[in-house]
Structure formats: C-alpha cells, structure tokens
Design brief:
Elements (H helix, E strand, L loop, with lengths): L4 H18 L5 H14 L10 E6 L1 H6 L6 H11 L6 E4 L13 H4 L2 H14 L3 E8 L19 E2 L7 E2 L1 E4 L3 H4 L3 E4 L11 E3 L1 E4 L2 E4 L1 H9 L7 E4 L3 E4 L3 E4 L5 E3 L7 E4 H12 L15 E6 L7 E3 L3 E3 L1 H14 L4 E2 L2 H14 L8 H26 L1 E2 L3 H15 L15
Parallel strand pairs: 1-15, 1-16, 2-3, 2-16, 3-7, 4-11, 5-9, 19-20
Antiparallel strand pairs: 3-6, 8-14, 9-10, 11-12, 12-13, 17-18
Length: 419
Amino acid sequence: MFRTGAQFMILILLAGLAFLREARHEPLASWDNAFADFLAMHSRHGATPAPVTLIEINDAALVNHAWPWTPLDFSLFFQAALPAGPEVVAIDQVLDWQRTMILPEDQNRKLPQYEKILRDNILRAPKMLLGSRLGIPEDPQVIPPLQEVPLLRNVRGQLSEIPEFSAIEQQPAESFRLSSAIGFTNLPATHLRYNSVPLVLRYRGQVTPTFTLQAVMLWKQLTPDEIFVELGSHIALGKSLRIPIDRSGRMRVDFGSPRAGIEFAELMLASEQKEAGRPPIVPIEQLKGGIVLLSRTDTEARKIPLAARRNGSPGELFAAAIATIQNQSFIQPAPPWAQYTVIGVFMLLGYRVPRWKKWKTVVFGAVALAAYVLSALAVFNRWLVWLPGVVPLGIVAVGILFRVVTPDSFGRPKKPVIF
C-alpha cells in the first residue's frame, strides 16, 4: 500500500482532510492558534504605533509607592499625564477604597482629603474611563437591586452565547463614577492562553460594552446608539470601523500590533524634566490625542497566560486589544479554499516521495515546513491572514512515518535476476 506516487498523494489527501477537521477542536485548535500567535509576533506589520500608551505600574514603581495605592498616588499619575494632552485616560483598577482597597490606619484618616484631590483630577481629564467588575451574588435566591450600566441596544444574534452576570461585583465609588464612564474588566475563566478579549457582556439580560470597547468608543467619540453588534460577525463602530467577533462577542488580539509603553517612574521623571525645560527621558508627546491606560504590570499582577507565550497582566491584554482595534490589525483565518490549496500543494510535493531514500524524505519534510512557515509569514504580513499550522505539520509527519516504515525498494523497478 502507498508504493506509488498516486497512492501516496491519496494518503496525503486523507491525512490533510482529517487534520483540517480535527484542527477545529481541542487540543489541536490551541496548536493552530499558537501558530497564528507565532506569525503575529514574528511578522513586520509596517504600521505606526497605535495611539494607546500603557503606563506600567511595575515592581520598580511599587518600591516607592507600595500597593494598595491611595488616591494621592493616583493623583500623581494625573498630574504627570494630563499636561501631555491625552484624549482618554483609563484606569482598570476599581477605585473604591471602602470595599476593595484596605489602607493602613494612618492613611485611612486622610482618605476623604485624598479622594477630593483625586476627584478634582478626574474632572480635569477630557474623557475618563474606570474599571468595574460583574459577578454572581453569593446567595442566588437574593437578587441584588438593578444598577445603571451602559447598554448596547443594536444587537443581533443569539444572546445566550454572551456570558451573563446578575450583579455588579465591584465598581468605583459614586463620587468617581458620576464623572466617568465605566467598563467591565471581566475575562473568561480558561486554562488556555488568552488570545482573545470579550468586547460585550450581559448584565441581567442586557448587553453592555467591556472595558476595551468602551475605551475605543470614548476615543472615537461614539455613543452606544452608534454601535451595531452582529454576533458571530462583527461590531460596527459607526460607518468607519468593523471589528470581527465570534458568537460570544470576543475579538482575537494581535499581540504584534505596535503600541507604546512607559513605566510609571519614567512618566514622573519625564514630566518633571519637561516642566524644567529639559528633554524628557521618554517621548511623552506620544500621549497627545490618544488613550492612556494606567495598569499594574508587576510580578504579582502578571498571572494570566497570554498568547504571546508568556504570563502577563490584564492591563497588557487590554492595551494590546485596544492597539489591535486602533491599527485595525484583525487576524483572520485563511478561507476554506486556501486551506484546501495547502493540501493540494503538499499532494503534488508528495508524488515522488516513494522513490526517495528515507533520509532524503526527512530532509525534504523539514525544508518543506520551513518554506511553508516563510510563506505563511509573507501572507500574514500582506493580508493579516494566518494559514493553518496543524495541517502541514500533520501531513509531513504522516508522510515521513509511512515512508520510514516502507522499504527503499518500494516504487522502484526491480533489476532482473540472471542465472
């Protein structure tokens, strides 16, 4: 069996179709997604950095400003960032010191004064976005009172696919919330790596935007009535931008999309240098007209497995998602005809495999995979389309396996025996 080139081509066809089907389900689906992330991280997008800057509260910043931060610590951020002229200021932490942040006794006495300073700084921001969290009540028999949240009314599709919550677990204090927009920072519970981010969630059956989508809406100056959601297809932001989403309202994140990042200590120093008339240590002029996101990136916060093959913080995921939308670098899987074309190309390459030595088949398989990866990178750079990764790998593995277990004489004419 599989001694001739035609038979070997049939083997490759069957293997390719089998891997193409299985790649849509776990565990092979995560392998294919990992290949897409590899292409995104190693491709050259050619785009300018997105107008979003992540201000990183890293371990160095926590040396002088221990966590949990007081309202005064957050006020220092506003004093350094607002002179640069950002369009949107976002903080993914829940600013509620009464419930979510417990301060030492000496700082707790000064809390009302610190909160007033922070409230004044929030009022100075052009557009302000604060993080909140949805949840489930501890006692399902006790329904908490309905609270006001931003809602999206133009939604089409199966709403049951969107994760639903019945309570607001954490939200900013009312004095901060009244002068800001809120966005929910909930992430799906998964043991896999995060290569997507939810853009919509459900609260008591109604669809509400998440922190990522709310930040882009503020930046583009759009109201909820200008947002149109079609689950399994896209989210239309006005008439100029369409964000592809799946049936549950998630968008794939392009971690290779360029964006800016500044450490909190660098921002403070650069602000002081600019006030003194000296060149700043970092280009804080890039904050002008964009989104500035303050979030933790310290070791304690970097607990979620990102698709970039490393652990990161939710703030890093949000910043990468916002950059994906701003750069419109939406990663799309190859259409079916392109996936069948890949199988067809490997069928043609496998026609002469039965005539080769075993070692030559192994070398040719490695070269073919390397050439395929380079071709996939070129396609991704040009169209942001990721070709399948499991299908060619599976085809080459099956081809080498069947060639190794067959004698070298298969497919070759036998020499006549002279007596």
